[in-house]
Write a structure and sequence with these properties.
Blueprint: H1 2-13, E1 16-21, E2 26-31, E3 34-42, H2 45-55, H3 58-67, E4 69-76, E5 79-88, E6 91-98, E7 124-129, H4 136-150, E8 154-159, E9 172-177, H5 185-192, E10 199-202, H6 208-219, E11 223-228, H7 233-242, H8 246-259, E12 260-271, E13 276-285, H9 288-295, H10 302-307, H11 317-324, H12 334-337, H13 362-373, H14 384-392, H15 399-410
Parallel strand pairs: 7-11, 7-12, 8-9, 8-10, 10-11
Antiparallel strand pairs: 1-2, 1-6, 2-3, 4-5, 5-6, 12-13
Helix pairs in contact: 5-6, 6-8, 7-8, 8-9
Length: 411
C-alpha cells in the first residue's frame, strides 16, 4: 500500500492522468495523452492480489469474483482516484484515473453558458446523455457545484461510484454510493423521497422501474438530474417511453411530457481551433412544442423542432459546432482543467458498524439461539392434515418435539 501511495503522489507531481498496473509488467502511465513505461517498477501477481485486497471491501471483492471486474473511487495520498479492477491473461489489472482535486466549472469544461440555467430549475427532469467516457459525470458535477453555490437546497446523489466529493456550501449535499450505501438505484429512489430532497442526482437510468421512479420524483416537485446512454435526444425519449410494458407506455409518455426540462446529449470532438477535444452538445429544452411531440408520440418531428427553436436555446450538434464552438475565441486548456491534484475537500468516509457485516451481533445471536431451540425441520414428507395440526399447536413447544410425536402417532 505504501508503494501504491508513492506511485500516486509521484503521478500527481508529474501531471500524469492515468496509471496502469498489471502483473509482471513495467508500470504504465499516461502523460499529456501519451503512454509511458517505467521499467524500474514492476509489480508481481501476488503484490497486485494483496493490493486488491487492501483496496476493496468484502462486497466489492465478491463483485470482482462474480463479474470479473469492479469500479470504485477512493481517496489515496490526498488524491481522488477512479479505479477499474479487472481480470486479464496477466491476472488482476488496474486502470487508475487521477481526478482533479477541484470540481471544474461549466466555463472550465468549455460548455455552453446556458447550462447555468439548469441550476435555477426547481423541479423537472434533466437528462445528460452520451456514450461512456465523454464527461457526463463531470458535467453533472459542474451543475451540482452551481446549485451548491447559488441555492439553499438539499441535494442527494446516487452514484456508481462516487467520483467527485462535494462540500456543502449554500446547499446541503449527501452522497450515496451504489453497493456501499444503497443496493440499487431503484431502492435509492424509493428511499430518497423520504429524505426531504430538493435535488436528486441519479448516476444512470437503465432499468424501466428506475426510470419510472425518476419520473415520479420529478412529477412530485423535485429536480431530478440523471445520466443515460443515448446518442440522440430522440433515442433518450424512446428509451424512457419503451422501457416499460406496453400498457404503461402512455402513462410514462404523459409523465415525461409534463416533467422534461432539458436533454443534453454530449460527445467529444477534436477541434483544431482549440487544439484539443471539446464537448459538442445537442440541447433540447422542455418547451410546449417538445412536450406536445412527446405526448402525441411524434418523435420524428423532434429534429425539425430542434433546428427551428434557436430562440428557445436549442441546438442540434451541427449548429452547436458551427454557431457556438467555431465562433468562440477562447478555450480553457483540457490539461489545466483536469490537472491531477490533491483534493480541496478532504474528509474520511465513515462506515457505521450498524450497517457493516460483523461476525456476531445481538440480533444475530438471538436468531441463532432461537434456531437452536426450535430447529428447522423438513415437512415435505408430511401430509397436509399433519402440517395443519403442527400449525395449531402452541408456539412455545419445540417443533422437533411436535414432529417426533406425529411420527409416533403415524406408526
Amino acid at each position: 500500500m505504501k508503494l501504491f501511495e508513492s506511485v500516486i503522489n509521484n503521478a500527481i507531481k508529474e501531471s500524469m492522468s492515468d496509471i496502469h498496473i498489471t502483473g509482471e509488467h513495467p508500470l504504465v502511465s499516461r502523460k499529456r495523452g501519451d503512454i509511458q513505461f517505467n521499467a524500474s517498477l514492476k509489480w508481481t501477481h501476488q503484490e497486485i492480489d494483496d493490493l486488491t485486497r487492501e483496496l476493496l471491501t468484502p462486497l466489492q471483492l465478491e463483485k470482482l469474483r462474480q463479474k470479473k471486474s469492479v469500479d470504485l473511487a477512493i481517496s489515496i495520498g490526498n488524491a481522488r482516484l477512479r479505479i477499474n479492477i479487472f481480470t486479464t491473461v496477466r491476472g488482476i489489472s488496474m486502470a487508475i484515473r487521477i481526478l482533479p482535486g477541484n470540481i471544474p466549472t461549466i466555463e472550465e469544461l468549455n460548455l455552453h453558458h446556458s447550462l447555468h440555467d439548469i441550476s435555477k430549475i426547481k423541479s423537472g427532469l434533466v437528462l445528460i446523455c452520451g456514450p461512456t467516457g465523454v464527461g457526463k459525470t463531470t458535467t453533472i458535477a459542474a451543475i451540482i457545484n452551481d446549485i451548491n453555490k447559488y441555492r439553499q437546497a438539499h441535494i442527494i446523489t446516487l452514484e456508481d461510484p462516487i467520483e467527485y466529493r462535494f462540500q456543502s456550501k449554500n446547499s446541503f449535499i449527501e452522497q450515496r454510493e451504489l453497493g456501499s450505501h444503497v443496493p440499487s438505484f431503484e431502492q435509492g429512489l424509493i428511499d430518497v423521497l423520504r429524505e426531504d430532497p430538493d435535488v436528486i442526482i441519479v448516476g444512470e437510468l437503465r432499468e424501466g422501474e428506475t426510470m419510472r421512479l425518476a419520473l415520479n420524483a420529478a412529477e412530485s416537485g423535485h429536480l431530478v438530474i440523471a445520466t443515460m446512454h443515448a446518442a440522440t435526444p430522440e433515442e433518450a425519449i424512446y428509451r424512457m417511453c419503451n422501457a416499460v410494458p406496453v400498457d404503461a407506455q402512455t402513462e410514462v409518455r404523459n409523465q415525461l411530457s409534463s416533467t422534461l426540462a432539458w436533454i443534453v446529449v454530449q460527445q467529444l470532438m477534436h477541434l483544431e481551433k482549440a487544439g484539443q477535444r471539446v464537448p459538442v452538445l445537442t440541447i433540447v429544452r422542455g418547451t410546449q412544442s417538445v412536450k406536445n411531440i412527446i405526448r402525441d408520440n411524434k418523435l420524428h418531428q423532434l429534429n425539425n423542432t430542434i433546428e427551428t427553436s434557436k430562440n428557445d436555446g436549442m441546438f442540434s450538434a451541427e449548429r452547436y459546432l458551427t454557431e457556438y464552438l467555431k465562433t468562440r475565441s477562447d478555450f480553457t486548456s483540457y490539461g489545466k482543467t483536469f490537472l491531477p491534484s490533491t483534493e480541496l475537500f478532504q474528509s474520511d468516509f465513515y462506515k457505521s458498524p450498524l450497517t457493516e457485516d460483523a461476525p456476531q451481533t445481538k440480533f444475530a445471536a438471538k436468531q441463532q439461539t432461537a434456531t437452536a431451540a426450535h430447529p428447522i425441520v423438513d415437512l415435505s414428507e408430511y401430509s397436509d392434515e399433519n402440517i395443519n395440526r403442527i400449525l395449531d399447536i402452541a408456539e412455545d413447544i419445540p417443533l422437533q418435539s411436535i414432529v417426533e410425536k406425529l411420527n409416533k402417532n403415524n406408526e
